[in-house]
Amino acid sequence: MKNLVIIGAGMAAGRLVEHVADAGGWSITLFNAEPRGTYNRIMLSPVLSGEKTYEEIVTHDAGFYEAKGVTCRFGERVLRIDREMKVVEGENGHVPYDKLVIATGSTPFIIPLPGHDLDGVIAYRDLEDTQRMMALGEGKKAVVIGGGLLGLEAAAGMHARGVDVTVVHLMGHLMERQLDEAAGYLLRKDLVGRGIKVLVSTNSREILGEDGRVTALRLEDGRELPCDLLVMAVGIRPATALAAEAGLATGRGIHVDDQMVSSDPDILAIGECIEHDGQIFGLVAPLYDQAKVAAATLAGAEAAFANRETSTKLKVTGCDLFSAGDFAEGDDREDIVFRDPARGVYKRLVLQDNRVIGAVMYGDTVDGAWFHGLIKDRTDVSGMRDTLIFGPSFQGGAALDPMAAVAALPADAEICGCNGVCKGRIVEAIEGGAGSLDAVRATTKASGSCGTCTGLVEQLLAVTLGDAFERPTAQPVCGCTELTHEDVRRLIKAQELKSQQAVWQELGWSTVNGCHVCRPAVNFYLLADWPVDYQDDPQSRFVNERKHANIQKDGTFSVVPRMWGGITSATELRAIADAAEKYNVPTVKVTGGQRIDLLGVRGEDLPAIWADLNRAGLVSGHAYAKGLRTVKTCVGTDHCRFGTQDSTGLGIKLEKALWGSWTPHKVKLAVSGCPRNCAEATCKDVGVVCVDSGFEVGVGGAAGMDVKETEPLVKVATEEEALAWTIAFVQLYRENAKYLDRPYKWIAKVGLDWVRETLSVPEERARLIAAFELSQSIYQKDPWAERARDEEARKFAPIADLTLEAAE
Amino acid sequence: MSWIDIGALEDIPVRGARKLKTAQGCIAVFRTDEATVFATANACPHKGGPLAEGIVHGQKVTCPLHNWVFDLETGAAQGADEGRIATYAVKVAQGRILIEASVLGEKAA
After folding, report:
1. Chain B partners of A541 at a C-beta cutoff of 8 Å?
2. What is the DSSP string of A583-647?
3. Where do the TM regions start and end (chain B) (predicted)?
């Protein structure tokens, strides 16, 4: 009998022993640093959550190995491998080998944060770690760094035992290696819903402790999360130390060929410690394949390991997700996306050359195995593409006629779940004269809340009224959704949707992450409705608002500093002149809004020119923004012999109050000091004309593609009231208008009477002003100053310049 | 193929892009999700708009000047517009973005 030594008794080694012992011919010695046999490591999470016991997950205990004639050296570390003598040196003595298999697995990666060596900072790898978490006890606090598979299982398991858990994740969404954003959003929503706190895009700075024990995690932004236990689950590293010391070829893992043989022909390696064809392994399926191939190699048979598509499931009860194949990277990919907001279901298939190459599913994963099969078998799906996303049970069936389906519903079938309205009630309302969606909504409340049954109600209208029903011609936002802007705004408020992922999922977007039409609109709606909760997304903004400058036809930009109320000074003019010279600005122009425009600045120069202008006290004039542009003024009582009020002063006050706010479209104001109207206030979005007895506030003017005079909103006696009405009006516009509707278009839709009535209620005016001020507390800051230096400034430069290298 | 390291993956925000200068002209490098990058010519074939400044959605970019939309994988203009932008081999390894060395020009390749 020849000697076979195996180092490590993990899942790959356990499977190997099964294959080899059954074939016979070997005297086997098995080393394991853990003082026990083989257990199903991936089932530690159910043990943690209490759904299984350790005994239930043991796969190969000492008894099993004994029965197979294996000499077990459990709890004994291997010190070194002597390849020349072909001997393995254990802590308790040498064992010679003819063939050696290294299955040392992996070690968890510990981020070297200050304090990582404190007591109470653990990884999540073995039974000991699991027991530490199980011993924590109800009411204690735990922080998990890492929102991947293991981290979330640790968090959910501890939470199930009554621990107060916070997950801190560096990336923008959970499980980013297995899930796309939409599925990551649903997962987070589920976890947060059950009481686990989740912080994404969050960096840790240091671990705090007292008397050598962990007490809290401090984040990069300074926040502290108190904790009794800190679990790091940020990844694994192949355990290659033993192999490397023995002089075997290693990279990220121990290099092996297709036969699992290392650079030494008598040494094989399998499992998480290896690197095969540039890949390392963390899931169990390929490990079992490797064990099989290694067994064949040892028996002198032919076998070759080839990596195959694996799938992932999260072992957290109630979180149903499935991910397989390659959905993040691929060539000529196409997506099929299905969302069912009411059930919290998201499915996405990634296709390439008529084959499924990746699948991500959340909420309904019953077809996961079938899709996984299509991926593995590279099945041509062109014949079933239209119904592919509905899964195997739908293949081969006849296409449904939605009208027939609605007509066939019984009268007591519920149509609107939110308001509990059944089909009979809606049909009754329609027959009673409610001939439009709005009328049905008004009389029955159906589709008035979440709106997902709107399609059904329209079909009922069509079925009941026949040709008499004309579908509303309302335009959807874009091809990504069937909802109108107004619907999206209403639903964002009604359903309290506070992220773009939430909008895409809950409102059933048909694309992965929107398009250039809907993304800026949704970004605005979210920041207008939820200024505190939502974080502005620069990637959803048109270039001008992302770069805080207007792009010109040659790709250069224009820079317009703010001049409050059109007033400037010699110092400011000097700074502008200096900047114009320093940055070779080809054109300097005075704008219609009484500002100075520097045209033709190179994108790379923007942070530098801003820094120069900032130094002279000049801030962004937002001449590029769907936001407050300018407040144009005349000189008023300061100099003019006709002036009735301090129009310049009011203009400056208005500009100081409103600057920096984002609005559905650009907003321009003017204040004229008398009815001669030198500031042209009567063609602005808001125009104030001063008269002897006070201030006439007009709104809804236009002087662009349409030319329109303002309509009187209110006449007030004091400057304070003029300010209050203007701010309240702007906030009402921010809260209600469709993206890219100027105020005059919005007023035409809702009616000036409604605007006036709403603003006439003092409480509502006060609420609007308070809401505007809350938003300004976050958004009223100079975007130039924030981007003029350091890290932020570098983003305006090319990522790299290869012209120098090419010249060599 | 040989590859050139042009920067860290985090240098480009998700659904964002950066410009890369080369002797043959500017290239736009896009990051469409956590770990996927694409590289194409930076200039739109329509009026030369800088594509690195466009809105990135799905696997596409919209030119900031006149809203032409291009598939980043094939370089083909989408919808009614006709045209194509050059695409370049680019990949992510260990958190770094690597571009295929031929972008340096004939001499260096």
Report:
1. 55
2. TT-SEEEE-TTS-EEEEEE-GGGHHHHHHHHHHTT--B--TTSSBEEEEEE--GGGT-SS--S-H
3. none
Does residue A382 lie in a domain region? yes
Domain that holds residue A389: 320-394
Q: What is the pLDDT of residue A460?
A: 86
Span A335-352, average pLDDT: 84
Q: Based on the domain organization, do A199 and A268 belong to the same domain?
A: no
pLDDT at position A366 is 76
Distance CA B54, CA A543 (A): 6
Q: What is the largest CA-CA distance in chain B?
A: 39
Query: What residues in B contact A181, CB-CB < 8 Å?
Result: 33
How far, CA to CA in Å, does A31 sit from each of A5, A239, A286, A788? 8, 15, 22, 60
User: What is the distance between the alpha carbons of residues A630 and A617, in angstroms, rounded to a whole number?
Assistant: 17
- Please report whether residue A417 resides in a domain: yes
Type and span of the H or E element at A694: strand A694-699
Q: Provide the CATH number for the domain around residue A211.
A: 3.50.50.60
Predicted pLDDT at A330: 53
Chain B residues whose beta carbon lies within 8 Å of the beta carbon of residue A806 = 22-24, 104-105, 107-108
Judge: A802–B73 Cβ closer than 8 Å, yes or no. no
CA B15 to chain centre: 12
- Concatenated DSSP letters for A353-380? TTEEEEEEEES--TTHHHHHHHHHHT-B
Q: Is residue A202 a contact partner of residue A234, using CB atoms and an 8 Å limit? A: no
Q: Is the pLDDT of residue A342 over 80?
A: no
Q: What percent of chain A has pLDDT above 70?
A: 95
Pair A257, A293: CB distance under 8 Å? no
Boundary residue ending a domain (A494, A516, A541): A541
How many domains does one find in chain A? Answer: 7
Three-state DSSP class for A333? coil
Distance CA A136, CA A132 (A): 7
Q: Does residue A643 sit in the same domain as residue A614? A: no
Q: What is the mean pLDDT of each run of 10 residues along chain B (109 residues)?
A: 91 95 92 93 93 95 91 90 91 92 63
Query: Which residue, of A340, A371, A394, is where some domain finishes?
Result: A394
CA angle A530, A340, A152 (to 5 degrees): 70
Residue showing tokens 């390849």:
A83
Mean pLDDT of A656-663: 96
Q: Assign residue A424 the CATH number of its domain.
A: 1.10.10.1100
Whether A636 and A749 share a structural domain:
yes
Name the band, by pLDDT with cuts 50, 70 and 90, for residue A6. very high
B36 vs chain A: nearest CA distance in angstroms?
6
Question: Looking at the complex, does the CB of residue A636 fall below 8 Å from at least one CB of chain B?
Answer: no
The distance from CA B99 to its chain's CA centroid, rounded to whole angstroms, is 10
For residues A572 and A667, membership in a common domain is answered with no
Q: How many CB atoms lie within 10 A of CB B15?
A: 23
Q: Give me the mean pLDDT over the A790-799 stretch.
A: 88
Question: Which residue of B lies nearest to A334 if distances are taken between CA atoms?
Answer: B59
Confidence of residue A13 (pLDDT cuts 50, 70, 90): very high
Looking at per-residue pLDDT, the higher value among A455 and A784 belongs to A784
CATH of domain B3-102: 2.102.10.10
Regarding whether A246 and A202 lie in a shared domain, the answer is no
Tell me the nearest-neighbour CA distance from A173 into chain B, angstroms.
9
Same domain, yes or no: A513 and A599: no
Q: Are A191 and A319 in contact (CB under 8 A)?
A: yes
SS (HEC) of A722-762: HHHHHHHHHHHHHHHCCCCCCHHHHHHHHCHHHHHHHHHCH
CATH number at A602 reads 3.90.480.10
Q: Report residue A483 as tokens.
A: 């909802």
Q: Which of residues 114-173 of A touch B (CB under 8 A)?
A: 171-173
